[in-house]
Structures are given as structure tokens and as C-alpha cells.
Amino acid sequence: MYSDTAHAGTPTSTAPSAPTWDPQQYLRHAGHRTRPFLDLLARIPELPTSPARIADLGCGPGNVTELLTTRWSEAVITGFDLSPEMLQRATEQYAGPTAGGGSLDFRHGDIAGWLPEEPYDLIVSNAALQWVPSHPGSFGAWINGLRPGGTFAFQIPGNFTAPSHALLAQLCDAPRWRSRLAGHGARYIHLLEPAEYLARFTELGCTADVWETTYHQLLHGPDPVLDWVKGTALRPVLTALGDDREAVDAFLTEYRDLLRAAYPSGPRGTVFPFRRIFAVARKEA
Ligand SMILES: C[S@@+](CC[C@H](N)C(=O)[O-])C[C@H]1O[C@@H](n2cnc3c(N)ncnc32)[C@H](O)[C@@H]1O
């Protein structure tokens, strides 16, 4: 739940089970992963002040954070993330002054306890809140932290009952893996449905725009769904198995075979349907 003890703008401690991220693997599907963010960006209304102050929660490798500068070129933008690997990549690639006179910086911070340390025009989060099941409990604080007329906008995957995730959860709970991986494939069950997000934001007095889209992604190459989840849903499993190469290989082989059956490759590639949930909540001006 939302933490009363968190300090404004400062991180709380990293959970011991926090997965290790691999920016390079994650960015292998950057095209498909970026598209929902562009669809979200297109629905964000004008911001109340210029230069705008923007926070990106769970900024990852920073490529999506940087896209914010294409619309708000003078903005002062801070990306927050827990992963040292992701933050290093973001900082190396994108930190510093922007062409439009604004700036980008990246800080270590835990979304779960994050409080706006100053008034924001926009708080945005792309494909990150699913890692923080308590996120609806923070909505009130985040909306409070917006300037009048400011916006909170996010996108999260809504595909946790899809074969990619259901099979992962089943495999983690199978007798062979249970002792090391039980629960690692079912970390996302606390997400709300679009109607529930809409209700939360209207209850908070916001003008809300909530929708869902299923992208029928056509992936290429051998075992592309496995390659995709290696960048995201498999991170907790890979982190838990650590340096045990034999176990990693055995798990990946079993999971790969299940994915091949669930997502057969065709002459033009492998279709990987992906449902996503979007919300844009504007605070009263
Ligand atoms: C799937 S990536 C999305 C990255 C980026 N927003 C994008 O759209 O490409 C999820 C990110 O959320 C971060 N994350 C997960 N839990 C977090 C938490 N509690 N606090 C801060 N960041 C978190 C991860 O480190 C990771 O970089």
C-alpha cells in the first residue's frame, strides 16, 4: 500500500526480490514496446505550465522518457527507477540538457513509496506500474502532487491471463521448480480492470480517459515470444535462478517448448497478441 513513511522524492529500500534487468535484452523489441507509449502520449492534454515539470515512474532505459521531449521540448524531466542497470543505460544515453532548452535526469527511486517532491505538470508511467501492485493506493497522493490542470497518465500490460504468463506461472509452480520458483510467475494478479481505474480517477475528481487495446504483434526470428519475455516477465525467474546455468537452460527449454505450442510460428512470423490498459487522468484546473 501507499507508504506514509516515504520521504518526498526519495527512494525507499530495494526489495530483496527485485529482479535484475537487462536493458539490452529489453530493448530488442523496442519498436513494439514503444508504440503503446506513443498512443498514450497522443491522448495527454496540454500541460498547465511551460516549461513543464514531468516525472516518469519506472523509466527503464530512458528511451521512452526521451520521447517526452519531442512534445515538451523545454520540459524539466526526471525519470525514476529501481534498477541500477536501467538507470546506468538511461543516464549514459539521455541525461543532460535537451535541444529545446529543457533537461533530462534519472534518479534511483521506488515507485511504491514515491511522493511528488514538488508540483508536477505531468506524472507518467509506461509499462512499470504492474510491478507495483499497490499502485492504486498512490493515486490520491500523485494527483495531489499535480498542479491544477496537470495530468497523471499510465499504460500497463493487461495480458496476465495470456498463455505467455499463464504457462510461466504453471511452470514455476510445477513440482520440478516449485521449491525455487513458486509464485515467480504470478506476480501481477493485483491489477485493476479499465472500469475500475476509471472509477478511481473520477472518484478523485479527475477527468478520466481509460481504454484498452490488443496489439496483434507480428514477431520474427526463432522463439520470439521467449525472446520477448526474457526482457520482462522472465526477469524474476532469471534473477531467482541466478548463476545456476544448468537450471536456467533447463527452465528455458521447458518454457520455450510450451510457448512454441501456444504461439506457433507461421510463414510470416509469430503472432503475439498483447493487451494493454491505458489511463489519462486530468486534475481539475
Ligand atoms: C518493463 S520496464 C518499462 C521501462 C520504461 N518505462 C519503458 O516503457 O520502456 C519496467 C521498469 O520498471 C522498473 N520498476 C519496477 N518496479 C519498480 C519500482 N518499485 N520502483 C521503480 N521502478 C520500478 C524496472 O526497473 C523497469 O525499468
Layout: helices, strands, pairs:
Layout: H1 23-26, H2 30-41, E1 53-57, H3 63-71, E2 76-81, H4 84-94, E3 96-97, E4 103-108, E5 120-126, H5 139-144, E6 146-157, H6 163-172, H7 178-181, H8 194-203, E7 207-219, H9 224-229, H10 235-241, H11 245-262, E8 270-282
Parallel strand pairs: 1-2, 1-5, 2-4, 5-6
Antiparallel strand pairs: 3-4, 6-8, 7-8
Helix pairs in contact: 6-11
The protein binds S-adenosylmethionine (SAM).
Structural description of this entry:
- By secondary structure, this protein is α/β, with parallel strands linked by helices.
- The chain has eleven helices and eight strands.
- The chain has helices at residues 23-26, 30-41, 63-71, 84-94, 139-144, 163-172, 178-181, 194-203, 224-229, 235-241, 245-262, and strands at residues 53-57, 76-81, 96-97, 103-108, 120-126, 146-157, 207-219, 270-282.
- It has an eight-stranded mixed sheet with strand order 3-4-2-1-5-6-8-7.
- It starts with 22 loop residues before the first helix and ends with a strand.
- The structure holds S-adenosylmethionine.
- S-adenosylmethionine binds at residues 21, 33, 37, 58-60, 64, 80-83, 86, 110-112, 126-128, 131-132, 232.
- Residues 54-150 form the Methyltransferase domain.
- It catalyses: trans-aconitate + S-adenosyl-L-methionine = (E)-3-(methoxycarbonyl)pent-2-enedioate + S-adenosyl-L-homocysteine.
